[in-house]
Every structure is written in C-alpha cells, then in structure tokens.
TrEMBL record:
Keywords: Oxidoreductase. This is NAD(P)-dependent dehydrogenase, short-chain alcohol dehydrogenase family. Gene3D superfamilies: NAD(P)-binding Rossmann-like Domain. One of its GO terms (molecular function) is oxidoreductase activity. InterPro entries: NAD(P)-bd_dom_sf, SDR_fam.
Amino acid sequence: MEFNKVPAIVTGGASGLGEGAARALAAAGCKVAIFDLQKEQGEKVAADIGGIFVHCDVSSSESAEAAMAKAREAHGPCGIAVSCAGIGPAAKILGRNGVMPLESFSKVIQVNLIGTFNILRLAAAEMAQREPNADGERGVIINTASVAAYEGQIGQAAYSASKGGVVALTIQSARELAREGIRVNTIAPGLFMTPMMSGMPQEVQDSLAATLPFPKRLGKPEEFGMMVDQMVRNPILNGETIRLDSALRMAPK
C-alpha cells in the first residue's frame, strides 16, 4: 500500500512502540493522528511529526468513535490503523495476598483486547469506504500482541490472555475483511526499550538483555516502526503474526 498522504491512526502513539510506529508512518508520508491518554506527550510527538493528537480511551466505544471522527475530519477516512495502546500490570492468580481480583483481569482484557477490537472495527468501517488501489486494497490494520501470548510468565495471566486474544483475532479478521480489501497483521514484540523499561535500574535492563539470543540488547521503538512500515508496504502479507523478539523464548519467570 502507498503511504503518501494516507490518513493513519496510531493508538498509544505518545510514547514507546506507538511513538516508533507514528514516526515511521509520518516519515513515509502519512498524515498521522496519535490516539492516546497522555495529552502533553502526545501533542509533543504530534507536533514533531506534523500530525495531530486526539485524546482517546480505546476501551470506550464513545471515546474511540469521537476520536475517529476528529481524525477523519482533519485527515480523511483512515487508511492505516496501528493499535499499540495497552497495559501490563503483573498479578499472580494465587498470590501472597490471596486470589487475583476479577476486576484486575477484566481491566487488562478491556484495554488490550477489547480496545484493539474497538479500533479495528471502527477503522475497518472507514477503510471500506475508501477507493481501492490496483490490487483492490483499501486499508491496512496492524495490531500489537506480545511474546507473552505464547510464553506467558508467572504473574502474566491477564496480559498473556489479552495478547493471545489479539493473536487469535488476526487470521479471523483478515479473512472476514478480505472482501473489503483490508489486510490485518499483528506484531508480537519481545523486550523493547519502552518508557516502562527505561525506568528500571540498569542492572535489571542488562539482565533482561542477557536472556536474548541475538542481538543481546533491547529492541528500539524505531525497529518496531520498521516492521510497521514493512507490513504496510508488502501487499501479500496478511493474516500473519510476526514475532519481533531477537529469538527470545520467555522462561517461566
């Protein structure tokens, strides 16, 4: 798919992997709308890349619908949608303080899985109205899972379940949206230098990097952005989840 002046939205685009995706799409020529809850940081990134910031809670249908409307008014119907918004609090099913509260599990599912589907459905509706290219393609949707979808660690019950749902949604939605000329792919990142990771002590970062086969360093947000770029460019890459993890296979803890 072409990038030039194509309206793109990136949830969680104010920082981390989302920022990497937003910068990559803007560099390729897209008109980028950053959807996030972090207003100050989101506006800063948007100004830097020549895009716009839109306040959005992806877990809310009303908030997401309003955000899509604002982005559409500014740039036109969405042609590329990248979902990076997510949370990852750790909690054991049976911990020292008792059983995991059901509300804790539900919140992660609500943001990571339902939030991803929320944007997918709204973006697909706009993409279906766009003029197709020579291949009949109207849009590209890229979701974010995690290696935790495959090798969830102790304390990641909610996070692993939410990301496993995103993986399962990939081929299903790609098949269903094929008739509209919309491709759907997912990136499952491993260990990346995100704001959460950068806040950890250096010795913790080094110990995590040491678990990576090669290269033995944390991934960079711009490298996540490179994969987003390639998923948009390659017209036959569809229904696929790609691990971006330096050959990492997570240990139990």
